[in-house]
Amino acid sequence: MHLTKRFFTMNALAVLLSVGLTVLAVIIFVAAYTKVFGREADTKEVQKAFEVRAAISEIKREAQPLKFEQLLDTKFQQELANRVNALDASAIILKNREVVYATQNFNRIDIERSLMLSDNQATRDEVELAGKTYMITRVDYKVQAGDPGVLLLLAPIKLKTNFFVLLGIFTVSVFTVVFLLTNFWVSYRFSRGIISPISRLKAAANKISEGDLSQGIAEEGEGEVRELCRTLELMRIKLKESVYMQQKYDDNRKFLVSSISHDLKTPVTSIKGYIEGIIDGVAKTPEKMDEYLETARSKAILVNAMIDDLLLYSKLDLNQLPYHFEKSDLESYFEDCVADHKYEYEKANLSLSLINELNEPVKVLIDRERLKRVIQNILDNAMTYVEKADGKIEIILRETRTSAIIEIKDNGKGIPENKLPHIFERFYQVDPSRKSGSGLGLAIAKQIVEGHDGKIWAKSAVGEGTQIMISLKKF
């Protein structure tokens, strides 16, 4: 519900609640007052008022069949006076709107008012005379001369003025207190649901403007305020991610610059040395010159490969390298990989074979080119560290219920246990004395495999060889 609707709804409920509680309080007050101060007296007064009304009605009923001349009889008038005096009431006999007989003196204005209000067409049966309220009734007669005759009967109504004044004060007081309390409650609810969260949002916004993105923003408050908290928290997270990526980019750039300057120094120095040797005439024979040029070329190729690896790792680390996934058959894919490297291994007098232990064809979702880079990096490492005359590398395909397992196994000298956990770190070399690459091969492989939602790990034993394991989801 929007804040405006909620505000009006809560205020309307506050008014209705105030009215309801006031009515309940008045009922309880009247019941308690009657019980404590005058239940018996009130009952008697009600009974007396009923008796007076009945007696007045009886006098009217008895007077209706009489002729007006009979009302002028002294005996009748005396009897009428006795009866109305016993009821603390009054009787007035009028002829042609002139008073003929009255048990109590009323001024002319009060009499005219009584005649008007007691007319047959009048709807009121009460009149206020001389500060008192009277119940009024009348009997009309026709006099022989044609003048109208009227018998007015007036009975005073006693009202408990003090009680009603007290009741009025109590009602107003209760309504005022309840209304103030409900409005305080509404204000408290709005303060708790709107003002307090907005104050905290203001403080959080100030911290964000100062560059402090560490404090999370809780979703609190009502309606739009809660949505504002959620939006500001999403903005904080996006800003934090942006700052993190910028810092990571800067760190990566600095690291790459330092790594390039460090790792490229040796091959570049070698290239420079061999070229200077040719220029200075050290390589005098054509054979020596060819040897120097070939060495310089191989070093240049190494420099180029190192730069490619650095750029590739940088893109992978910053998630700037897109993947193009497609569903592929695992066995046929690795048959192609083995075929691509077969000649190179035969030239190095090494054995490369594919062992399929799959029960049935397995499909995996892969970027074929990126995964080939993973296999190439692993095979290049294996070729470097396999020194035996009977050196061999095996690619073994296995499967679990949900995953395809690729094991690339060699029979090289193995990796020491204390160095095994670090082989996937960037620029790490198991044997620094044999530096022949960028040191990013396995780090790149790890990034690409994780980009496939897969896992990569290693097993090794010194003198027995190394196994690189890759796990990919089956489809």
- Averaged pLDDT: 80
Distance between the termini: 46 Å
Residue windows where pLDDT falls under 50 for at least 5 positions:
none
Q: In angstroms, what is the radius of gyration?
A: 56 Å
If you had to describe this structure to a student in words, what would you say it looks like?
- This protein has 475 residues and is of the alpha+beta class.
- Helices cover 57% and strands 17% of the residues.
- It is built from eleven helices and twelve strands.
- The strands form three sheets. A five-stranded antiparallel sheet has the order 2-1-5-4-3. The protein has a five-stranded mixed sheet with strand order 7-9-10-12-11, covered by helices on one side.
- The radius of gyration is 56 Å and the shape is rod-shaped.
- The mean pLDDT is 80.
Write a compact overview of the structure shown:
By secondary structure, the chain is α+β, with helices and mostly antiparallel strands. It is built from eleven helices and twelve strands. It is 57% helix and 17% strand.
What are the key terms here?
475 residues; alpha+beta; 5-stranded antiparallel sheet; 5-stranded mixed sheet; 11 helices; rod-shaped
What's the arrangement of secondary structure elements?
Blueprint: H1 3-63, H2 68-71, H3 74-86, E1 90-95, E2 98-102, H4 108-117, E3 126-129, E4 132-142, E5 148-157, H5 161-209, H6 224-263, H7 265-279, H8 286-317, E6 326-329, H9 330-347, E7 351-356, E8 363-366, H10 368-385, E9 392-399, E10 403-410, H11 441-451, E11 455-461, E12 465-473
Parallel strand pairs: 7-9
Antiparallel strand pairs: 1-2, 1-5, 3-4, 4-5, 6-8, 9-10, 10-12, 11-12
Helix pairs in contact: 1-5, 5-6, 6-8, 7-8, 8-11, 9-10, 10-11
